[in-house]
Design goal:
The structure is a single chain. The chain is mostly beta strands and 100 residues long. The chain has one domain: Immunoglobulin-like (Sandwich), CATH 2.60.40. 0% of the residues lie in helices and 61% in strands. It contains no helices and eight strands. It has a four-stranded mixed β-sheet with strand order 4-1-7-8, with no helix packed on it. A four-stranded antiparallel β-sheet has the order 3-2-5-6, with no helix packed on it.
Length: 100
């Protein structure tokens, strides 16, 4: 079993965020806002038994979606950023993100 940690990082301002793992909704929250002091809005941890999974992050009100296929053989950390130009990006790494 692996732990998928998703950090909603920079750029969120009163957003509705929906996260799906393998097409199943695992997180939905309104009014997600980045804490400017640390650059983090929220952290979500999901356990999975799958060896690979598709992660989808959606901002439904802004009509934005980013999807990524990830290997889940060991714990994985994903960072999601909303850029001022209207783009969502998803960054993957094998160690935890650090904040001030």
């Amino acid at each position: 079993m692996a732990l998928v940690t998703i950090d909603l990082q920079e750029g969120f301002a009163n957003d509705t965020v929906v996260i799906r793992l393998n097409a199943q909704e695992v997180f939905r929250r309104e009014n997600v806002t980045t804490r400017l002091q640390i650059g983090l809005a929220d952290r979500i941890e999901i356990q999975t038994r799958e060896r690979s999974s598709e992660v989808e992050i959606e901002l439904p009100i802004k009509k934005l979606v980013v999807t990524k296929e990830i290997a889940c053989e060991k714990d994985i950390f994903l960072g999601v950023t909303f850029h001022a130009g209207g783009k969502l990006t998803l960054r993957e790494q094998l160690c935890e993100f650090w904040y001030a």
